[in-house]
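User: Sequence recovery, please. Input:
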């Protein structure tokens, strides 16, 4: 999970730099934004899966 968190931070910084002097709808900004969205979604999936599995084990005890 550490890798995904680092990638999100890296892409967040890249998007800020890419957006300087460009519109938010510029293709370069949109490309970085899509990559950032992908990793954020992966992080959410991982954290939701971890939450569900830990609550499952608590219910079984």
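Assistant: Recovered sequence (61 residues):
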């Amino acid at each position: 999970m550490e890798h995904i968190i680092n990638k999100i931070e890296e892409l967040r910084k890249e998007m800020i730099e890419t957006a300087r002097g460009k519109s938010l709808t510029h293709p370069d900004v949109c490309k970085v934004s899509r990559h950032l969205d992908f990793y954020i979604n992966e992080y959410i999936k991982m954290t939701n899966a971890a939450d569900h599995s830990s609550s499952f084990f608590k219910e079984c005890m």
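Helices lie at 2-19, 27-60.
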